[in-house]
Design goal:
Chain lengths: ~375, ~375
C-alpha cells in the first residue's frame, strides 16, 4: 500500500524553532496547526512551575519551566526574568537552530484583504531569507519582492543589500499601544492592512514588539536579551523594547538589516491598561533618557561579534544609564551574565534536557 | 434667483500652486478637472517657445516659456535647465503661494483598491498639514492618521512631531525605474497599492521623484532646485534626485520632515529606455560618489535658513564633487545663482508677468 500523500515540507522546517512564552494551556495552537505543525516548538512556561500546561496533540515541543531554567543555568538563571514574558529569551538561548520565530499565545491567524489566512511564519522566513536595504531608502518598499525593484536613483553598489537579521511583524485588531494610549483610546482597533515590508534605515531606532517576531539566531541571537522585567524588578513591558534598541544598534554596527511590516497576526485581546500603567510608568520616564543614549551609542571597530558588541554595550549602559537609576547597573550586570550563559550553552555540544520531551505525533 | 449650489472650496485653494512642466497640449488636465479646477496652475513650457500649448477651458493658469524665463531672470536664467523637465523649478520660484504641488503631464488619476478615484492633491495636503516623525520610527506608519497612533515604546517627548516640508507621492502602473531596470524588466508594472504614509527618518537619503511631489515652499522652497540638466549638460533625469538629496540634508539639519507613500497617481507611459540610458549613464557612475558625499554632509549651526544651508552646500559640492567632474563646479555656481534669483523674486513684492494670464472661467 502506498503512503498517504505526504504534507509538503515547509520552508526551514529543521532550521527554525518557534518560541512561545506562556502561563496557560496552548489552545491557541489549534488555529496555527496548518502552519506550525511541522516545526519544533520551545515553550517557556512562566509563573508557577507546578502548573501543567496542556499542548494540543500532534505538536513537537520541548517545555521549560522555572525549575528547568534554574537547573540548566544555575546561578546565572537570575538573568532570566520571572513572571514576565521576557522569560521567552531563555528559549532563544537553548535553541540549536539558526532561526527563531516567537509569538504570543493571544495571537491568532489574521486574514489578508482577500480573506485568505495569512501564513505569518512563511512571510517572516521570506523576509529573513531575502536581503535588507539599511543604507538607502527604496520608495517602492521591499525591492526584492516579486513585481518590485529598486527605483531610479538607487545606487547600484547598494543593490546587493545586507543580510537580514530581524523580521518584525505587525498586528491587526488590538494595536500594540502603551497604557496611556490604551486608556485614552480604549476602542481603537487596527484594521489597516499595509501590504509592505521595509527595512528600518541604519541609524534609526524603532519600537520592537516581541509579539510576532523572527530573527536569525546566528546573526543576532546573543543580542536578543529581553532584560530584567517582572518579579522583583521596577519595570515591565519594556523587555522587547530593550532588546530592540540593543539589536538595532548592533545590527547597524555590523551591517545587518532589520525589517518591519508584513506579516500581520490577529492580536485578540488588549491587556489591562491599569496593570500595564503600573508596569510601564518608570519606562515612560526612563525611555526619554534611554533612547538618546542608544541613538548616540557607538561601538568600537574591534567589536566584530555580537557578543563583543553586547558586552561593550553593557559597559556603556552602566556608565551612562547607571545615573538614571540603579536598576541599570543591575541590568548591565545581567547583560553580561546573559552572554556568559549564552556562550556556555552554545559552545557546548551536549543537548540540554527539558522536563517534557518532544511527543511529535506528526513525525 | 438663488445662485446655483457652489462647489465646495477645496483645501488650501488660495495657498497652493500646481506646477506643470510640459512640451505639449495639456489634455491630461481633463481627467484632473474635479480635483485641480479650483487651484491656480503655473505651467512651465519647455522647448520651442513659439509653440502654442493648449490648456483646457476653465483652468486658471499662468504660463512661462523660455523667452519669459530669460526676460524675468536675465543673465541668471542660465540656472534654469532647458529641454528637460528640470525647468519646472522656475515655477516654484515665481509662485507666491505657501505650497506647491508638481505633477508630470503623463500622470493620470489612479484608483484606490475600492475603485474610487484618488484625489492625489488632497492626500498631499493632508500629508503636509500633519506633522512628520523623522526622529524615531513608528511601526504602524503615520501616527497622525485616523485609526492610528504611536505604538508602545515611542518616546512621548517626540509625539508632537516635526513640521512636514515634503510629501513624496508614488505611482501605479509604470514604476519610476532607471534605464537599466527598464531595459531588463520592460513589462514590469506596479500594481501594489500600499496604504501607508511614512516619514523618511533623519539621516536617511531617498530617491525623490518629481512626478508627483508636494512641498511647503516657505519651509523648503529655496532648496527645491532641480539643477542643470538637458540642453548643453552632460546629464539628465537626475534633476529630482539632486533636489531630493539637497532637500533631505537640509530638512535633517533644520528639523523638518519628509514623507513618502500615498498618494498614488497613474503613470501612463514609460519613457524610452535607450534615450534614458544616454541621459543617465554619467549619473549612474556619479551617484556612487554623490550619495556618500550627501550622506556625510553636515551643515554648521549658523546655517539657520534654507538659503544659508543651500549656499553652504554649494560650497561643499564644489570642494568635494568638483574633483569627480568639472560639471559639479558649474552646478555649484548655478546653485548660488538659483538662490540669488530666488531671493530677488521673492523679496520683491512686485508681481512677475507671464506671457498668458489667468483666464479663470471657473472663477
Amino acid at each position: 500500500m502506498a503512503d498517504p500523500s505526504p504534507k509538503p515540507v515547509p520552508l526551514l522546517k529543521d532550521e527554525l524553532d518557534i518560541v512561545i512564552p506562556t502561563i496557560r494551556n496552548l489552545d491557541f495552537l489549534e488555529m496555527w496547526r496548518p502552519f506550525f505543525e511541522q516545526y519544533h516548538l520551545i515553550i517557556v512556561q512562566d509563573g508557577d512551575p507546578n502548573k501543567i500546561i496542556k499542548v494540543p496533540e500532534g505538536f513537537d515541543y520541548e517545555l521549560y519551566n522555572r525549575n528547568d531554567i534554574n537547573r540548566i543555568l544555575g546561578p546565572k538563571a537570575n538573568c532570566i526574568s520571572f513572571k514576565d514574558s521576557a522569560c521567552r529569551c531563555f528559549g532563544y538561548m537553548v535553541s540549536k537552530k539558526k532561526y527563531i520565530y516567537t509569538i504570543d499565545d493571544d495571537c491568532f491567524v489574521a486574514k489578508d484583504p482577500s480573506g485568505k489566512d495569512i501564513n505569518a511564519l512563511e512571510q517572516h522566513i521570506k523576509n529573513l531569507l531575502s536581503p535588507a536595504t539599511p543604507f538607502f531608502f527604496n520608495t517602492l518598499y521591499d525591492p526584492y519582492r516579486e513585481g518590485a525593484d529598486f527605483v531610479r536613483g538607487y545606487p547600484f553598489s547598494l543593490r546587493e543589500g545586507a543580510p537580514t537579521a530581524v523580521s518584525h511583524g505587525l498586528w491587526l485588531n488590538i494595536p500594540d499601544y502603551d497604557a496611556p494610549t490604551q486608556l485614552v483610546k480604549p476602542r481603537e482597533r487596527n484594521t489597516r492592512y499595509v501590504d509592505a515590508v521595509l527595512t528600518i534605515p541604519k541609524g534609526t531606532l524603532f519600537p520592537m514588539c516581541g509579539m510576532n517576531l523572527a530573527f536569525d539566531r546566528e546573526l543576532i541571537g546573543p543580542a536578543m536579551y529581553f532584560g530584567l522585567m517582572g518579579d522583583g524588578q521596577p519595570i515591565g513591558r519594556y523587555d522587547d523594547m530593550w532588546a530592540g534598541w540593543c539589536v538595532k544598534v548592533i545590527c547597524d554596527h555590523l551591517g545587518l538589516g532589520v525589517k518591519t511590516g508584513l506579516p500581520y497576526i490577529w492580536h485578540s485581546k488588549a491587556s489591562n491598561p491599569f496593570v500595564n500603567l503600573k508596569k510601564e510608568y518608570k519606562g515612560i520616564f526612563w525611555q526619554e533618557e534611554i533612547i538618546p543614549f542608544f541613538q548616540s551609542a557607538t561601538l568600537p571597530k574591534d567589536c566584530t561579534s555580537v557578543q563583543k558588541c553586547y558586552i561593550e554595550l553593557s559597559k556603556q549602559v552602566k556608565e551612562k544609564l547607571g545615573a538614571v537609576d540603579p536598576y541599570f547597573n543591575k541590568l548591565a550586570d545581567a547583560m553580561v551574565t546573559w552572554i556568559e550563559a549564552w556562550d556556555e550553552l552554545n559552545n557546548n555540544t551536549s543537548e540540554q534536557t527539558s522536563s517534557k520531551q518532544a511527543n511529535g505525533a506528526a513525525k
